[in-house]
Design a protein that fits this description.
alpha+beta, seven-stranded antiparallel beta sheet, 5 helices, 7 strands, elongated
Length: 141
């Protein structure tokens, strides 16, 4: 099961993230998870939202460079060692991870994973009885 993620290129200027958050909020789009990486000139905002297509439309209307990618959302117990076990399965399958970010809610943690082979990674995790979520699942939690 794959989840849609947006990547938005932002100039490294004060207020750029605020502008994105405001545009999405005014459009009734919720941000479930996000991460920001940056260098001296620009940043990349990666996020999972409640309405991917509408978010793309709203952001492009305001001249933001937006791309969409599939990622895996792993739901695992929020306890020591749970993520390590999942990473062991991924490593044993010879997969690499381009990036990850996570958020936890009480007894569970949701980990966004961008592996080098999405299909194989999803197969490895589900074969080992780990729970994968779609973006729509994140809004039911």
């Amino acid at each position: 099961m794959l989840t849609k993620q947006l990547s938005i290129f932002l100039e490294n200027k004060k207020g750029r993230f605020t502008e994105v958050a405001t545009l999405l909020g005014e459009a009734g789009i919720n941000m479930t998870a996000f991460t920001v990486s940056e260098n001296s000139d620009f940043g990349i905002l990666r996020l999972i939202v409640s309405d991917t297509e509408r978010a793309i439309s709203v952001l492009r209307e305001h001249l933001y460079a937006v791309s969409q990618a599939d990622v895996i959302c792993l739901r695992c117990p929020n306890r020591p060692g749970a993520l390590a076990k999942a990473m062991e399965y991924i490593a044993a399958a010879g997969l690499s991870i381009e990036y990850m970010y996570a958020f936890s809610e009480g007894d569970a943690a949701n980990v966004i994973i961008r592996p080098d082979d999405l299909k194989k990674c999803a197969e490895v995790l589900t074969t080992n009885k780990l729970e994968l979520l779609a973006a729509s699942d994140l809004y039911r939690l």
